[in-house]
Amino acid sequence: MLTLILAVAIGLFDEPQAAAQEQKQRYIPNRQFQLKDLQVEELKFTQTTDTGEKVEHKIKSWVMDTEAKRQEGLMFVLDSDMKADQGMIFVFKAPEPLRFWMMNTYIPLDIAYLDKDGVVVKTYTMIAHDTTTDYSSIKPAMYAWELKQGTLRKLGLKAGMKVTIPEKVKAKE
Question: Using one digit for the tens of pLDDT, what is the confidence trace for 68-89?
């Protein structure tokens, strides 16, 4: 009992304080759009495990809905700026062939290209600072979803699977 009282007194169970600290994002020099200022939406998909169990995954994702935001993407972001359950969704007005690169991107990333219905058309693991590899969608895509490297494999997200994207995630330009 004394341990519990001490834990509460020193703030170990102070959830509002922990949540506030979790929300803080550092100022990232060289970025026009700070992560803390970007719209965040939750994308979902369901994975079927080897045992047939269905597991729903939810990934909070920064929304890149303008040309300037899409160009900046995850440039200058450090590994410590992004959690395993965070991503960045790039939204375009209409499906088109997409090609991404890793200029000024310090962390390796997974990318999933999604069609207008949220179906994965192509995935890659991208190398930090790589500006020469062709990470293209192959087929027209309306979204590109970037996650920390290894996330797609860990969560079992593959071509042909559907990601639920909130309706309010739309390109502004």
Answer: 999 999 999 999 999 999 999 9
